[in-house]
């Protein structure tokens, strides 16, 4: 996980300055995270380093005192004192309440007594327990039919971002139906995105029609699900070109192959079968007499 570095500081043109505040942009629920406050004293002596979430102070480091580090109770905050110091702060077993704006405040000793601060924001993420689910498809389609599919990503925080692809290309916006986010009683969210379009011959220009839905969440999660449709070849003795397709997960349908073979029995083959059947029938009745 690559943290995003966001620097906001207050204070004038002083010797003491904040160089960088490093906070993960997004972190997984239940994991530990490391926050860093990098500053330059430039000849001053350090008096204290304080960490806040919002307006609430929860960690203070004063090198002249004993113990040097003090923790103040705050919901969603569990400081690992053994791993924290004047520059680094480690939070254990983070929860949804841990998220927020974290501010590092640095103060110098006498004679300047100057104070500077910087901040960065962190989101806490709970991933879905399974990948996105595609629903609503029919077992067979023909060119001209309407495709109506839904992609659902269950119970995450925040809700996942869903994207539909048709043959590897993002679906056009007018083919999409965005549903409202559904929030469960425990705060977890479910997202759903519909896909609606009419099947054209061009959808099979490169072979099978592939429909894919992806679910993403920050830079921590990417999952996809795919359905494919296989075109039936046109029947030679028919003038119309109504292609039929068979929705399938990954493999071709044996039934479709059998239907394909039957379709290709032309007029000559059917006549030959009829003659053969007549001869067999005559031989059978002659043997009986």
Automatic annotation (TrEMBL):
Its main location: membrane. InterPro entries: CD80_C2-set, Ig-like_dom, Ig-like_dom_sf, Ig-like_fold, Ig_sub. Keywords: Disulfide bond, Membrane. Residues 3-117, 128-168 form the Ig-like domain. Pfam families: C2-set_2 (PF08205). The keyword Secreted does not apply. It is a single-pass membrane protein. It is found in: Membrane. The keyword DNA damage does not apply. PANTHER family: BEAT PROTEIN, BEATEN PATH IIIA, ISOFORM D-RELATED. This is Ig-like domain-containing protein. It comes from Daphnia magna.
